[in-house]
Amino acid sequence: MAQIKTAFVRPLRLSETPPPPIPSIDTSKPDLASVLYSQHRTLLSTHRTALSEHRTSLSEFRTDLSTQRTGMSTNRTEMSMRRTGMSFQRTRMSADRTLMSVIRTSLSLIGFGFTIFQFFGKLREAGTLTHAAAPRNFGITLVALGIAMLVMGIIYHGQFMIGLREERKRGKLAGLVHAESGFPPSMTLITAVVLLLIGILAIVSMVFQIGPFG
Hints:
The protein is mainly α. About 75% of the residues lie in helices and about 0% in strands.
């Protein structure tokens, strides 16, 4: 962005000078009267020219100030567009952080539910417990809850990002943002999808006793 640092100097205030006085004319001498009137008109013209030049200088000074203000306004507009573009990026990262929170909660539910299921299953196999259906069902419920929460988080994140991209596109078409930096693929979303697949495999193994976690 070009920075305007030129300092303009205001023209000096024009001293107030009265117009040339009207000469005394001897009407009995028309030739001399004509010369005196002509000289007076010349003096008046010189006076008007000086005033006109001063007005021109002031007008040029105002024009320079207007140009500088226009440049400053352009810079402010550019900075505003940059800030708006960065706010889109911050919003995108905030959405990723929200999805990370969902991943942490879902991972806790899935891991805790799977641990309960396996723990009480081993106790039953060892003969320590005769009835472990209730805690095993509780473990399955926790895993299902973690999966459901993860699905809702992924759907919400996808819808939010689509809306954010559309809003950014409309801002670019309206000239409000440059939209030069792209939105990279969300590693958080990829992690959430992978965790969702693991959770589905886990609950299938728990219910049907098949698969890698059976």
